[in-house]
Predict the structure.
Amino acid sequence: MVLFRRVLGEALRAARMQRGMTLREVSKEARVSPGYISEIERGTKEASSELLGSLCQALDIPLSVVLREVSSAAALEERALEISTPQIAGRGGDVVASAA
Amino acid sequence: MVLFRRVLGEALRAARMQRGMTLREVSKEARVSPGYISEIERGTKEASSELLGSLCQALDIPLSVVLREVSSAAALEERALEISTPQIAGRGGDVVASAA
């Protein structure tokens, strides 16, 4: 299962890096402790919708853009998970069995 | 500010309707109470990442697809907010002040 908070954290961290902002700078803008933002970026804490909105404002990035990036990253992970645990494995076995 | 949980709730509800599933059916699949799912759909409760994953599995929709839809809906709301509260209003005021 792809965990939303982990992929979101990576996207928020990437956005902060791209802007060359420190945790402390975002913290000041968003009025949240740097430690809490760090936990969100590492995907260990869930961000409330209000906090997510504040972080987007602090980073000057629309929520829709962050979510688009999270969606793209999640799609890549979903594809990777499909490849590592293919759901058609059972069917493949059946084909071999019926051909024998 | 566009609230993530509200837009997410609307997307989850739309996905459930599209599949013709009742709250009770999703509840059974996702092992969450129907009341809790209803609150998430109405945007009054935040869904943890684990619960969001379970709901996506119960609805048989990838998380990436839900997030893409939430991103599109958020983008529309952001545009509507921009139109109703234009950020250049302040600048216009400055021009008037300096011309006086």
Q: What stands out?
A: The interface with chain B takes residues 1-6, 46, 48-50, 52-53, 57, 62-65, 67-68, 70-72, 74-75, 78 of chain A (CB under 8 Å).
